[in-house]
Inverse folding.
């Protein structure tokens, strides 16, 4: 999908360059056409106003002036006729260029829409696993290069299977959606919430210190949803890990998972 976006951009840039070249050539032609007309008029005016030092008789001078005037009028007629033709072509070209821009914008919006669909989870609207794995590697590379903080949080809903079994899969989907909405509220705008699959989630926290990570964890609390007048209490286990030198995406998430499962082990009976 990213390759498709690049292809759209390259095609657009190529079309725009070609269009700009046509506009440049047309503008240059109009400039030279106007300059030629002005020069011809100036030459004619100079010929009329200069003194009669050439020895040409007044009659002969009048014939020369008449011939020059006719030639000038003919040249101006040709230039202006061609200018009208070029202006008409330019108008058609501008319309084509406008249509081309509108089409390119429509294609770009369509490509952006498809790209957005390719990186998001359709149920929750969070980023999907593939995008999350790529982004985590990118953030690790950036952290190593600039010496920044980086943290991850892993989340797993408690007793999610029991919720599905007792209330049905639509209820489970509703819980996932509600959890995703709550998750977006408690994280920062720069953080990346990801649904790994099922009831497993990952949050990438760029430039996030230990203190900030703890603050975000403190905001992640159990919640209730109401479905068909029945309350469903949803809780979740959380784990976190700070980036350490030499970490890979797998090792970083693995440490967060370890603390998450330790917390999950302390849970009692299902609250639903």
């Amino acid at each position: 999908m990213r390759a498709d976006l690049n292809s759209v951009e390259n095609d657009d840039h190529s079309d725009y360059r070609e269009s700009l070249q046509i506009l440049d050539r047309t503008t240059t032609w109009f400039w030279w056409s106007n300059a030629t007309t002005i020069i011809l008029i100036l030459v004619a005016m100079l010929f009329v106003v200069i003194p009669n030092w050439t020895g040409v008789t007044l009659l002969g001078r009048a014939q020369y002036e008449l011939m020059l005037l006719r030639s000038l009028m003919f040249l101006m007629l040709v230039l202006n006729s061609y200018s009208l033709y070029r202006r008409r072509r330019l108008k058609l070209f501008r319309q084509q260029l406008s249509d081309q821009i509108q089409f390119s914008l429509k294609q770009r919006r369509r490509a952006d829409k498809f790209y957005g669909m390719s990186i998001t989870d359709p149920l929750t609207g969070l980023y999907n696993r593939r995008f999350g794995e790529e982004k985590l590697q990118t953030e690790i590379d950036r952290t190593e290069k600039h010496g920044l903080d980086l943290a991850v949080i892993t989340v797993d809903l408690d007793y999610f299977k029991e919720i599905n079994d007792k209330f049905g899969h639509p209820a489970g989907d509703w819980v996932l959606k509600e959890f995703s909405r709550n998750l977006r509220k408690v994280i920062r705008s720069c953080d990346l919430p990801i649904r790994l699959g099922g009831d497993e989630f990952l949050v990438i926290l760029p430039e996030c210190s230990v203190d900030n990570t703890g603050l975000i964890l403190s905001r992640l609390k159990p919640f209730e949803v109401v479905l068909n007048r029945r309350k469903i209490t949803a809780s979740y286990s959380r784990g976190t890990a700070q980036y350490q030198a030499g970490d890979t995406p797998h090792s970083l998430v693995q440490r967060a998972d370890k603390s998450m499962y330790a917390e999950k082990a302390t849970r009692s009976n299902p609250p639903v």
Q: What stands out?
A: The beta strands are 150-157, 192-197, 200-206, 223-227, 230-234, 236-242. Confidence is low (pLDDT under 50) at residues 1-5.
